[in-house]
Amino acid sequence: MRHRLEHISLEIRGVAVETNDLGLRLPLVRCSTSTVGGMSLRSENLQKLDGGTFDVLIVGGGINGAVSAAALTDRGLNVAVIDRGDFAGFTSQESSNLVWGGFKYLENYELPLVWKLCTSRNHLMRQYPTQISELGFLATLDKTSPFPPWLAALGSVGYWGIGRFFTKRPAYFRPKAIEAAEPVVNTTNARGGIEYMDAYLKDNDARFVWGFVRSALDGGAVACNYAALDGSNRTADGWEATVVDELSNQRVNLKARSIVNAAGPFVDGLNEKWDLKTDHRIVYSKGIHLVVPRLTDSERVLAFFDDTERLFYVIPMAHRSVIGTTDTRTEIADEGVTDEDRDFLLAQINARLDLDTPLTRDDVIGERSGVRPLVVEMNGSDHTDTDWGKLSRKHEIEADEERRVVTIFGGKLTDCLNVGDEVAEALQGLGLRVGDETENWFGEPDKGARMAFYADAAKVGLDRSPGVERAHSMAEVLWRRHGRAGYQILRAIERNAEMGQPVLGDTDVLWGEVELMAEREMIASIDDFLRRRTKLSLIFRRDELMAHPDMPRVREVLGL
Question: What is the pLDDT of residue 1?
Answer without folding.
Answer: 32
